[in-house]
Amino acid sequence: MIEIAQRELIYLWYYFSIQFDQIVWYWVLGMALGSLVSVFGKEKIHDLFVKMRNTKMGAFGVVPASLLGIASPLCMYGTIPIAASFAEKGMAEDWIAAFCMSSILLNPQLLFYSAALGVPALAIRFVSCFLCGALAGLCVRVFFKNKPFFTFTKFERTASHDTDPNPMLRFLKNFGRNVKATGLYFLVGVVLSALFQRYVPPDAFGRLFGGNRGFGVLMAATVGVPLYVCGGGTIPLLQQWLASGMTMGSAASFMITGPATKITNLGALKIVLGIKHFAFYLFFIIAFALLSGLAIDYVFRIT
Question: Going by fewer Cβ within 10 Å, which terminus of the chain is more open, N or C?
C-alpha cells in the first residue's frame, strides 16, 4: 500500500509540475498587468466613462461602456460603488449595466490568464464577454425604460488601497495583494487539474462535453454555477478540459456563467438589484451562456 501511495504521489507531482510550468507565467504576468492598470490606469478608465455622459451616443453607448468595463481592474465589490458614483453623476442606467456586466465577466488580469488557453479561447472569451455586457445594457434600455433598475443606496464607496506616494511601492503592494487574493485558488486549480489528468479517463470526459455538443454546453453552463470560485483557479481546469474533449462552446458557457454566478458576486448584485431584477439577471446570464455556446459549436463551429 505504501508503494502504491508513493507511486500515485509521483504521478500527481508529475502532472502538477507540468501544468504549473505551463501556466504559472501567465498567472504572474496577468497579476502584473492587473496591478499596472489598477495603479496607473484605473482612474483614467473611470474618468473616461464619466466623460461619455455628455455625448449623444444613445443606445450605442453600451459599446464603449462594455469595453471600459472589461478594462476596469476592479472586483465586484469595487465595481458597484464606482457604478453608484456614475449613477450619482447622471449616467444612463443602460450604460452602467453594460459596464457592470462586462466588468463582472472579465478584467485585464483574467484576460491575460486566458491566453494560456490558446488564441481561439482567448478571442472567444473577450468577444463573448463584450457582447454580454453590451446586450445587458440594451436589455435594461428596452425592458426597463423610465424605470429604475439599480438601487445603490446600500453601497458605499470603499477607500482605495493604492495610496502610497511612491508609484513603484503602490504597484508592488497592489501586486502583493493580488498574489494573496488569487495564489491559493491558482494552486488549488493546478492540483485539481493534476487529479483530473490522473483519474478521469479522457474518453469519458470527451463523451460528456464533446460527444453531444448541445448537452455539453448545458452541462458546462450548469457546472459553472457552483464550481467557479476564482478566475485564476479555473484556467488550469479549462486547459485540461479542452485538451480532453470539451468543445469551445462548452468552455465559453462555463466562462460566462462561472464569474457571473460566483457566490460573492451574486451577494453584491442581490443588494443593488432586488428580487425581481436579480431574477431577470440570472435568467439573462444563463440564456446568454447557453445561446452563445450553441452558436460557437453549431453556427461558427470554432474548435
Answer: N
